[in-house]
Design brief:
Layout lengths: L7 E4 L2 E4 L4 H6 L2 H14 L4 H13 L3 H13 L5 E3 L5 E3 H19 L1
Antiparallel strand pairs: 1-2, 3-4
Helix pairs in contact: 2-3, 3-4, 3-5, 4-5
């Protein structure tokens, strides 16, 4: 999934690294990722990278409703910034959330 690998954001040409459970997601440990991300969300409400990765973790366990909620929240939130994806590509957080939301909506339809 495209958005699950958001690891950092750029602010005036400087990188700020965030805890977004990248290692847990990469290892396929979705339960651990959810635990880490929910704790991080409590510390940084509305953080798009955290929301997107929470969506990814819930999508991977088949909880489409929660995944859609977190992706929609990231898409519609007040905060946005550039995310670095696992493939090294940079993408606006709202665009990443839109792509992830479209993907999870298709998967949810296919699962029905």
């Amino acid at each position: 999934m495209l958005a699950q690998a958001a690891t950092a954001h750029m602010v005036e040409q400087e990188y700020e690294i965030r805890e977004v459970a990248y290692e847990e997601l990469l290892a396929g440990d979705d339960a651990a990722a959810i635990t880490v991300l929910e704790a991080e969300l409590a510390q940084n409400p509305g953080d798009p990278a955290v929301l997107i990765n929470l969506g990814a973790a819930y999508a991977r366990i088949g909880n489409w409703e929660r995944a859609e909620h977190y992706y929609s929240t990231a898409r519609d939130g007040q905060r946005e910034y550039q995310l670095e994806l696992a493939n090294g590509r940079w993408l606006d957080s709202r665009d990443a959330a839109r792509l992830a939301l479209a993907s999870v909506e298709l998967e949810a339809l296919a699962a029905r």
